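Minutes, project check-in

Agenda point 3 was the complex the collaborators sent over. CS summarized: two entities, 1554 residues total, and the question is how they sit relative to each other. Sequences were read into the notes so everyone works from the same version.
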Amino acid sequence: MHSLHIQKIKAITIFTAVLTLASSCKKFLTPDPEKSAIQASQAFSTDGAATSAVFGIYSTMMYGGLGNNPYNGSFGVSFGLASDELNEYNQTYPDWQQDQVTYASYGPNYSYWADQYNYIYQCNAAIEGMKASTGMSDSIRTQLLGECYFVRAFCYFSLTNMYGAVPLATSSNYQANATLGRADSAAVYQQIIADLQQAESLLTPNYPSANMVRPNGYAAQALLARVYLYQDSWAKAESEVDSVLAGPYQLAANLNKVFTINSPEVIWELYPSGQGSQNAYDFSYYTPASTQSGPKYYLTSTLVNSFEPGDQRATTWMTAYPFNGTTYYYPSKYVTPSASPAAQYNVVLRLAEQYLIRAEARAGQNNLSGAAADLNAIRTRAGLAATTATGQSALLAAIAHERQVELFTEWGHRWFDLKRTGTIDAVLGAEKPTWTPDASLLPIPRLEIQADVNLSQNPGYN
Amino acid sequence: MKLLLHGKALAKRDAIAIPKLLLIMRITLFLTLALSIHASANTIAQTVTITSKRLTLEGIFREIESQTGYSVLWNESLFDKNYKVDVDVRDASVEKVLDLCLHGLALTYKINDKTILIEKAKTAPAPAPPTRHWVQGIVVDAGTGRPLVGASVKVKGTSKGTTTDVSGRFILFDIDESATLLVSFVGYKPTEYPVKTNQEVMISLIEKPSALTDMVIIGYGTTSRERSTGSITTVTAETIHDQPIGNPLSALEGQVPGLNVITTSGRPGANISVQMRGINSIAAGTDPLYIVDGVPYNSTPLNQFDFLGDPPVGDQSPLNSIDPSEIESITILKDADATAIYGSRGANGVVLITTRRGKYTDGKLLATADVYQGWGTLAHRMNMLNTQQYLALRKQAFTNDGLNYNDPSQSPPDLTVFSQTQNTDWQKVLLGNTAHTTNASVRLESGSDLSKFTLGLTYRRESTIYPSSVADQRIAGVMTYDYTSPNRKFGVQATNNFSYDKNDLIGGDPAVSITTVPNMQPYTSTGALNWAGFGNLTNPLAVMNQPFNDATSNLISNAVVHYQLLTNLDLKVSMGYNQSTMNQVNTNPSSSAAPSPYYTPTAVFGRTNLSSWLVEPQVNYHVGIGQGTLSLLGGSTLQRRVTDGDYIYAYNYSSDLLLNSPAAAGNSFMSDNYADYRYSSFFGRLNYSWADKYILSLNGRRDGSSRFGPDKRWGNFGSIGAAWVFSKESWMTAAQKWLNFGKLRVSYGTTGNDQIGDYGYTANYAVARTAPFQGISALIPQNLENNQYSWESDRKLNFGLDLGFAQNRVMITADYYQNRTGNQLVGYALPAITGFTTVQYNLPAVIANNGLELDITSVNIRTKNFTWKTSVNATIPKNKLVKFPNLAGSSYAYAYRIGQSVHSAIGYKFLRLDSTGSPVYLQDHTGANEETAVGNTDPKVFGGITNSFTYKHWNLRFFIQVDKKDGYNYLNSTFSPIGSEQNFDALALDAWTPGHPNTNIPKATTASYSWYYYASSSANFGDASVVRLKSVYLSYDFPAHTLMKFGARKLSIYAQGYNLLTITGYRGLDPETGGIFTPLIRTFTGGIQVSF
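CS then shared the predicted structure for the full assembly.
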């Protein structure tokens, strides 16, 4: 009996031990936090964390390779193919070159849509987080808020020019955003202008960090100038350019210096942060990989032939490449391999465009001499004589041509210009047998239409 | 067949006088009673076979006379007429039979011509050692006479016992004057054998064709096939060791009903996909739960990076760290009854891997060495176009497109620049090497009744068919230790598995480059890599110069301590620890790239460390109630697994020589990852068996997982299983002549799945895997927040039938299962305008898996010298997506169709070629090509047939794997059309031309625009069935007398063949690895195993 008693005590002891172990389970199940991550609620709790979170927006804007990310130079390739600037040697994106982009839920068109909305989400979440934050200093909060409004405006500007009317998400609430319908372009532009005006008021004239990788007040004005130009608001566009030109910028005297990190011309650029890159990706998109490789994307004969004789841009920003008996020309605005020491970031806004904006705005307001002066500023830098165009329409045509040879393969300028000036059908219809007018708006990816009951497709894409 | 025994000549017996030696000689003498044919040929050519019990000496003499023609003369006064002996000798010489029979009787014999004279021995039989009473002998298979290794020999009524050694021999000391031995061995009927002390005996065990009473491993315990209520399949060591494999999962291929095992690549160490009873989950993991000696084992590759693709190239299977030769068995738990005790994590089945433990208790050291060496080659070549055919096709393509192939500005270099006669067989260049496999293992074991140990060490090296010396190399060791206290109440089992694997296979899969244009030259005249003329193509050999090195070290350690507190109450604690570390380095030196002014060398470094521990206290209680036994199990689990790793991308190196140092890079950036997974549960099992006829099993479990939000962590799971052994019913008596065993099983229950990422229940900002932004780290939002999701649940229903016929020589197991998985853990589809495309969510989508499984084992022939066994298994699975709310709006819209398998191949239905040779597809109402399910890639039927033959010392086993399924052929994974600048197989010769319009192969073209439709059309989807002679194993066990010359206990030589013959109509390198990925290779090996 005695030993049985002891055994019972033993059993009870062990059973209690097991139960004690078990009772601590609730606490046990709480994992240690992830070391390289913080919860969203902490991301804007301090100036440092908030700065990192806003840097995350820029970082994702430059991460990823061709076709997977809109802003790392991909726009230049995709819209260069879609318009009349580029041909592809290896036919990876024949749909872009033939303007037959489909609503497929993969490929560049899908990334362009989804990625830009992801940047917008990050901006929205950051704006909400910083407004609610109690741990941030006012100065940093003001600066970062300005940057977020600016980036959001930039994204919406691209989106609406690519897709027309687009959903306008201005909060991070995914339940609400999941059923947004398309806001018409006017409403989108209204939001863009409001955001840029807010950014302008929040940002200072100085860049908050080295180089021009984070927007300042001038960047907001420069983008605003472009937005007004697209809306034919000539006076407003001119006024914004005036403000920018009052700033510390000047045209780089040497064409070789336009896209360098110390360029006096750059107003806003993106800092490369993809794998192994310290420079813009553009170099690797266009430059043959080795001395024995074929060309990748080469300039169309239309573009090559549109340079006037003596235009230094044709020799500086374009490289002749003989291959298998044919001479190809590829864009060489960017000459630094991505992994080489930082020399060229991805330039988004530069002063030359501002001159051309003001030229067009002045011409639009019949200030022809003013327009010619601005145009000639660009022509002079390219080693060309003053424009011979006279009369409003001839000047506007000269300015359009100047935009073609100055801004080629940059950010889809050519595509957007052809659209906003209503010349796209005539120009591309002559250039490409496969052109259809509906192609001027890209298709909304089908997955989006299926996932959002209120979203409709652009015409021509069923 | 004959007995395998030591065979020193008997005639020397008289010459040895030293008592100890005499004892040895006496043992030897006895053990020689049934020496092999080979040893018996020295005096009398004829041999004798007698297998009878309790024969008188007279009976034996008469038998000898009748079998040999000899006359035997004896005087009846010499011995007791009623003295009887058991004799079981085959093909033994007369001398040996007589030696056996007369032994211990003070008799001897003389042979003159054809006469045998029995007479009194001149010397008395050697006395037994005076102080110790002993019994010794040999345990053999009654049918074949083969010694049984590791059989249990116990003295009835005592705790004394031992196991037989490698020769099947045993010896017991200090036993009672007349004792009874209880002799048992897995797969044989246990026998009671009365013995007298100081006696040498031969004990024959009769094999059971199907071992109903075999131990079957289940969750937290064991049962028998007779009593189990669940659906369980065990793969034995024999099956595993038959095959020259590096990964134990390979041994399961085609062997287990319901288990679909697919090797993702023929690369050594490649990941292996295992699906139990179909895909249950849309987005959460579908891996079964792996348990190695009670410790849950990670099955997700630890790679920080790989080479993207489907499958990703370079991922290492974590199971590759486990040495197959140290595995005793792999048990697969399938239905709710079997898996519910693992509750939450059992939805995809459970794979229990059990390490070999020490068996020998004779105190001697047993040392075994096993070495094999093999050669592997590409098993199946595709019939690719040669240069002449290729160029003709290219020119046709240009002509079809209205282009001039002579115009250098329009035609790529293959037609204008490259040699028009050079013919490179890229298949031979890239996959034509001979792979070498070397596998060497050493194993030591010993032990007593109370404590046993084993120590094993294996080295393996497996190279590839690539033009490179890269290989997967592994050193693996195992140590086991078992202790039982003398009163048998306390016990410890400890196991340590450790391994180091170095896999330096190149990155990328060279096989995909067999479509390289054939008139390109791989090398220049100096042997360097040729780049001239490659244009934008890469020389596929460049990747050979990009070293890719994965080193994985792995430790699995566990200990089980148990104590019998009361006679019917056992306490047990299992503790496990697993540590795995993978280090990866991939360097891209300048020498691996085309000459370029821009190229700078880069390197990538990855490290992942996983450590996991587990504690599981358990209580077992059993009590007799009525005619049955009630067993109760209760326990709890605490498990934690921490994974952390980092990744460094380094670039701007000044020299190729420094590439292995991340610090030497001009620039680099680093990212890290961390995950803490915690798991806890309480479980219980009730098992009641009434007269071994009606069996009921209840499992219950409450589980918590840290992968869910704080309020959603716990889930309850349970099952009920019942079995009815109807053959034991009295009304079955008449049928028992032919139906020896019959059991019906049914089980129903729920299990769960938490195989999703950690921390998903809160919105997180993580450090970007990019260079810092101006020196400051960037934080990127990872996910949208939803803390309301919880366990994915799987309801399993299983009906089983077990039948045994012909004295259980034929055993049939059939199972029908029905699994329905709901509450699916998916990324719920959101439009990308929300910033993300998914949010983790429990979607009420339902996947159903039904299937029929059949397993038949049969002993077809069993005679003295020859045995033939066959086992067949087959599975007919069916998978269906039953429900998926808003499928069309989800990111799964392309992949799935309601009512179809989740393995549906979505593509376009090819109708015909139009008059221009372009394909026409089924169109939807808008006139667009309609996306439709052109079929599915689920296996229709899969299984295998193993035949096993034993003839005397020879063993032959071969396994044929059968897999009937459909799939896309290799054209689905090419990106350019027939006629583009890449090579195709000979079917391209059948392409449409105006003069050859009656074909289904579209015209050659250089325009890739619409190739996508054709590539994924029904024209490229079809039969991908395969019948494979998967493995052949042939061995010869040397007879005992030969072994004596070497002093060895066992010696076998063997040959293995693996993937010897593949019969398939598949267009591609291999239907299993798919398309033109590195296929399974054909391997021949030869080996030798010796024990001392």
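Noted in discussion: Residues 608 and 645 of chain B are 4 Å apart (CA to CA).
Follow-up: revisit at the next meeting once the mutant set is ready.
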